[in-house]
Amino acid sequence: MRHQFYEQRCGLLWKMGDIPAAAVILSNLQCWCVAGGAVTRVVAEELMSPQGKTSMPDAAIFSPDLFEFLRQLKRHNNRAWFAKNKSRYHELVVEPALLFINSFAPHLYKLSPFFLADARPTRGSLFRIYRDIRFSPDKRPFKTHVGIHFHHASGKDAHAPVFYLHLEPDNCFAAAGIWHPDNRALTRVRSAIVGEPEQWAAIRKKVELEGDSLARPPRGFDPDHRFIDDLKMKDYVTSIAFSEEEVCSQKFLRDFAVACRKMSPLVEFTTRALGLKY
Q: What pTM was computed for the model?
Protein backbone atom coordinates (compact mmCIF):
# COMPACT_ATOMS: atom_id res chain seq x y z
CA MET A 1 0.00 0.00 0.00
CA ARG A 2 1.53 3.32 -1.05
CA HIS A 3 0.68 6.62 0.60
CA GLN A 4 1.22 10.23 -0.19
CA PHE A 5 0.25 12.35 2.73
CA TYR A 6 0.32 16.06 3.41
CA GLU A 7 -0.59 17.97 6.54
CA GLN A 8 -0.33 21.65 7.42
CA ARG A 9 0.36 21.89 11.12
CA CYS A 10 2.16 24.49 13.25
CA GLY A 11 3.22 26.27 10.07
CA LEU A 12 5.02 23.18 8.73
CA LEU A 13 4.19 21.27 5.60
CA TRP A 14 4.74 17.59 6.22
CA LYS A 15 5.05 15.10 3.44
CA MET A 16 5.12 11.37 3.52
CA GLY A 17 5.51 9.96 0.08
CA ASP A 18 6.03 6.65 -1.62
CA ILE A 19 6.44 4.57 1.54
CA PRO A 20 4.73 1.24 2.25
CA ALA A 21 2.68 2.04 5.34
CA ALA A 22 0.55 0.10 7.76
CA ALA A 23 -0.27 3.10 9.90
CA VAL A 24 0.54 6.74 10.43
CA ILE A 25 1.17 8.24 13.89
CA LEU A 26 0.74 11.96 14.31
CA SER A 27 1.34 14.51 17.02
CA ASN A 28 1.84 18.26 16.89
CA LEU A 29 5.49 17.96 15.91
CA GLN A 30 5.84 14.40 14.63
CA CYS A 31 4.89 12.15 11.75
CA TRP A 32 5.86 8.49 11.49
CA CYS A 33 5.10 5.67 9.14
CA VAL A 34 4.81 2.28 10.81
CA ALA A 35 5.42 -0.60 8.47
CA GLY A 36 6.60 -4.15 8.75
CA GLY A 37 7.63 -3.77 12.37
CA ALA A 38 9.81 -0.74 11.64
CA VAL A 39 9.05 2.89 12.30
CA THR A 40 10.17 5.51 9.81
CA ARG A 41 10.43 9.11 10.96
CA VAL A 42 8.99 11.47 8.33
CA VAL A 43 10.88 14.74 8.20
CA ALA A 44 9.44 18.21 7.74
CA GLU A 45 10.21 19.59 4.29
CA GLU A 46 11.54 22.81 5.80
CA LEU A 47 14.32 20.86 7.52
CA MET A 48 15.68 19.62 4.21
CA SER A 49 17.36 21.62 1.48
CA PRO A 50 16.40 21.03 -2.19
CA GLN A 51 19.54 18.88 -2.46
CA GLY A 52 18.33 16.71 0.42
CA LYS A 53 20.82 18.10 2.92
CA THR A 54 19.67 18.92 6.42
CA SER A 55 19.55 22.63 7.22
CA MET A 56 20.45 24.22 10.53
CA PRO A 57 18.43 26.60 12.72
CA ASP A 58 19.17 30.31 12.30
CA ALA A 59 19.38 30.82 16.07
CA ALA A 60 20.50 28.93 19.14
CA ILE A 61 17.91 26.50 20.49
CA PHE A 62 19.02 26.41 24.13
CA SER A 63 19.75 29.52 26.19
CA PRO A 64 21.74 30.26 29.37
CA ASP A 65 18.36 30.78 31.07
CA LEU A 66 17.84 27.00 30.92
CA PHE A 67 20.89 26.41 33.09
CA GLU A 68 19.91 29.23 35.44
CA PHE A 69 16.52 27.57 35.87
CA LEU A 70 18.17 24.23 36.67
CA ARG A 71 20.47 25.88 39.21
CA GLN A 72 17.48 27.49 40.90
CA LEU A 73 15.60 24.19 40.84
CA LYS A 74 18.53 22.51 42.59
CA ARG A 75 18.34 25.14 45.36
CA HIS A 76 14.53 24.94 45.59
CA ASN A 77 13.77 21.30 44.84
CA ASN A 78 10.23 21.25 46.17
CA ARG A 79 6.75 21.12 44.65
CA ALA A 80 5.68 24.58 45.81
CA TRP A 81 8.57 26.33 44.05
CA PHE A 82 8.15 24.25 40.92
CA ALA A 83 4.42 25.00 40.76
CA LYS A 84 5.17 28.74 40.85
CA ASN A 85 7.80 28.37 38.13
CA LYS A 86 6.15 25.74 35.93
CA SER A 87 5.53 28.22 33.12
CA ARG A 88 9.27 29.01 33.13
CA TYR A 89 10.00 25.28 32.99
CA HIS A 90 7.90 24.93 29.87
CA GLU A 91 9.33 28.05 28.28
CA LEU A 92 13.00 27.46 29.09
CA VAL A 93 13.21 23.66 29.12
CA VAL A 94 10.33 21.84 27.44
CA GLU A 95 9.80 24.03 24.38
CA PRO A 96 13.50 24.28 23.42
CA ALA A 97 14.00 20.55 24.09
CA LEU A 98 11.10 19.58 21.83
CA LEU A 99 12.37 21.93 19.14
CA PHE A 100 15.82 20.35 19.43
CA ILE A 101 14.38 16.84 19.18
CA ASN A 102 12.35 17.78 16.13
CA SER A 103 15.32 19.53 14.50
CA PHE A 104 17.60 16.57 15.14
CA ALA A 105 15.23 14.09 13.48
CA PRO A 106 16.70 14.30 9.95
CA HIS A 107 20.25 13.95 11.31
CA LEU A 108 19.21 10.90 13.31
CA TYR A 109 17.54 9.37 10.27
CA LYS A 110 20.85 9.62 8.42
CA LEU A 111 22.53 7.65 11.21
CA SER A 112 19.82 5.01 11.31
CA PRO A 113 16.17 5.00 10.17
CA PHE A 114 15.36 2.67 13.08
CA PHE A 115 16.00 5.22 15.84
CA LEU A 116 13.34 7.76 16.77
CA ALA A 117 13.31 11.46 17.55
CA ASP A 118 9.95 11.68 19.30
CA ALA A 119 9.02 15.29 20.03
CA ARG A 120 5.81 14.60 21.89
CA PRO A 121 5.79 16.46 25.23
CA THR A 122 5.13 13.21 27.16
CA ARG A 123 6.27 9.64 26.53
CA GLY A 124 8.66 10.80 23.85
CA SER A 125 12.39 11.49 23.65
CA LEU A 126 12.34 14.03 26.49
CA PHE A 127 12.66 12.38 29.88
CA ARG A 128 10.24 13.44 32.61
CA ILE A 129 11.46 16.03 35.10
CA TYR A 130 9.80 14.12 37.93
CA ARG A 131 11.93 11.66 39.90
CA ASP A 132 10.62 8.23 40.88
CA ILE A 133 10.92 8.49 44.66
CA ARG A 134 8.69 5.55 45.62
CA PHE A 135 11.55 3.35 46.80
CA SER A 136 14.27 5.97 47.21
CA PRO A 137 15.47 7.49 50.49
CA ASP A 138 16.08 10.69 48.51
CA LYS A 139 12.65 12.31 48.39
CA ARG A 140 13.54 15.35 46.28
CA PRO A 141 10.76 15.37 43.69
CA PHE A 142 12.54 16.78 40.64
CA LYS A 143 15.57 15.99 38.52
CA THR A 144 17.99 18.88 38.17
CA HIS A 145 19.09 17.99 34.67
CA VAL A 146 17.47 17.57 31.26
CA GLY A 147 17.71 14.18 29.60
CA ILE A 148 16.88 13.51 25.95
CA HIS A 149 17.12 10.01 24.51
CA PHE A 150 16.78 8.76 20.96
CA HIS A 151 15.86 5.10 21.21
CA HIS A 152 15.35 2.23 18.80
CA ALA A 153 11.92 1.89 17.22
CA SER A 154 11.55 -1.60 18.69
CA GLY A 155 10.91 -0.21 22.14
CA LYS A 156 11.58 2.42 24.79
CA ASP A 157 13.68 0.32 27.14
CA ALA A 158 16.06 2.78 28.80
CA HIS A 159 18.65 -0.02 28.86
CA ALA A 160 18.62 -0.59 25.08
CA PRO A 161 21.09 1.12 22.69
CA VAL A 162 20.47 4.87 22.49
CA PHE A 163 21.86 8.23 21.55
CA TYR A 164 21.52 10.54 24.55
CA LEU A 165 21.88 14.22 25.43
CA HIS A 166 22.42 15.32 29.03
CA LEU A 167 22.05 18.99 30.01
CA GLU A 168 23.07 19.94 33.53
CA PRO A 169 24.94 22.93 34.93
CA ASP A 170 28.67 22.23 34.53
CA ASN A 171 27.92 18.71 33.26
CA CYS A 172 26.70 18.56 29.66
CA PHE A 173 27.49 15.65 27.37
CA ALA A 174 26.34 13.51 24.50
CA ALA A 175 26.43 9.77 25.10
CA ALA A 176 25.70 6.63 23.12
CA GLY A 177 25.63 2.90 23.54
CA ILE A 178 23.88 0.56 25.95
CA TRP A 179 23.71 1.38 29.67
CA HIS A 180 22.97 -1.18 32.42
CA PRO A 181 21.67 -3.91 30.07
CA ASP A 182 20.23 -7.08 31.59
CA ASN A 183 22.28 -10.27 31.70
CA ARG A 184 20.81 -11.61 28.48
CA ALA A 185 21.69 -8.47 26.54
CA LEU A 186 25.14 -8.32 28.14
CA THR A 187 25.85 -11.89 27.06
CA ARG A 188 24.80 -11.12 23.50
CA VAL A 189 27.06 -8.06 23.30
CA ARG A 190 29.99 -9.95 24.82
CA SER A 191 29.42 -12.86 22.44
CA ALA A 192 29.41 -10.44 19.51
CA ILE A 193 32.77 -9.05 20.65
CA VAL A 194 34.20 -12.58 20.75
CA GLY A 195 32.62 -13.48 17.42
CA GLU A 196 33.69 -10.32 15.58
CA PRO A 197 36.99 -9.29 17.19
CA GLU A 198 38.33 -7.33 14.23
CA GLN A 199 35.17 -5.28 13.90
CA TRP A 200 35.26 -4.61 17.64
CA ALA A 201 38.94 -3.65 17.42
CA ALA A 202 38.09 -1.06 14.76
CA ILE A 203 35.37 0.39 16.99
CA ARG A 204 37.66 0.54 20.00
CA LYS A 205 40.10 2.66 18.03
CA LYS A 206 37.35 5.26 17.68
CA VAL A 207 35.62 5.25 21.08
CA GLU A 208 36.58 5.07 24.74
CA LEU A 209 34.32 2.82 26.80
CA GLU A 210 32.82 4.13 30.03
CA GLY A 211 30.67 2.60 32.73
CA ASP A 212 30.81 -0.09 35.39
CA SER A 213 32.97 -3.17 35.12
CA LEU A 214 33.20 -6.59 36.74
CA ALA A 215 36.12 -7.32 39.04
CA ARG A 216 36.56 -10.77 37.47
CA PRO A 217 36.03 -12.14 33.95
CA PRO A 218 32.40 -13.02 33.17
CA ARG A 219 31.47 -16.67 33.40
CA GLY A 220 31.81 -18.58 30.14
CA PHE A 221 34.38 -16.23 28.56
CA ASP A 222 38.10 -16.81 28.13
CA PRO A 223 39.95 -14.87 30.85
CA ASP A 224 42.90 -14.56 28.44
CA HIS A 225 40.87 -13.07 25.60
CA ARG A 226 42.50 -10.04 23.94
CA PHE A 227 39.46 -7.93 24.88
CA ILE A 228 38.95 -9.35 28.36
CA ASP A 229 38.79 -5.86 29.88
CA ASP A 230 35.97 -4.99 27.46
CA LEU A 231 34.21 -8.30 28.16
CA LYS A 232 34.21 -7.41 31.86
CA MET A 233 32.26 -4.20 31.17
CA LYS A 234 28.70 -4.01 32.51
CA ASP A 235 27.96 -0.95 30.35
CA TYR A 236 28.97 -0.27 26.76
CA VAL A 237 28.75 3.49 26.52
CA THR A 238 30.88 6.37 25.38
CA SER A 239 30.44 10.12 25.73
CA ILE A 240 31.55 13.51 24.44
CA ALA A 241 31.48 16.53 26.77
CA PHE A 242 30.11 19.97 25.96
CA SER A 243 30.33 23.27 27.80
CA GLU A 244 27.25 25.33 28.56
CA GLU A 245 28.49 27.87 26.05
CA GLU A 246 28.65 25.20 23.34
CA VAL A 247 25.14 23.99 24.16
CA CYS A 248 23.83 27.55 23.86
CA SER A 249 25.57 28.26 20.57
CA GLN A 250 23.87 28.41 17.19
CA LYS A 251 25.86 25.45 15.91
CA PHE A 252 25.10 23.05 18.78
CA LEU A 253 22.69 20.98 16.70
CA ARG A 254 25.50 20.39 14.21
CA ASP A 255 27.98 19.67 17.00
CA PHE A 256 25.64 17.13 18.59
CA ALA A 257 25.04 15.47 15.23
CA VAL A 258 28.80 15.21 14.68
CA ALA A 259 29.24 13.73 18.17
CA CYS A 260 26.55 11.13 17.50
CA ARG A 261 28.17 10.24 14.20
CA LYS A 262 31.49 9.65 16.00
CA MET A 263 29.80 7.41 18.56
CA SER A 264 27.50 5.61 16.10
CA PRO A 265 29.81 2.60 15.49
CA LEU A 266 29.27 1.55 19.11
CA VAL A 267 25.51 1.98 18.80
CA GLU A 268 25.44 0.02 15.55
CA PHE A 269 27.50 -2.82 17.00
CA THR A 270 25.42 -3.17 20.18
CA THR A 271 22.17 -2.80 18.24
CA ARG A 272 23.07 -5.58 15.83
CA ALA A 273 24.38 -7.71 18.70
CA LEU A 274 20.88 -7.64 20.15
CA GLY A 275 19.41 -8.80 16.87
CA LEU A 276 17.91 -5.41 16.00
CA LYS A 277 18.09 -3.58 12.69
CA TYR A 278 20.36 -0.58 12.29
A: 0.81
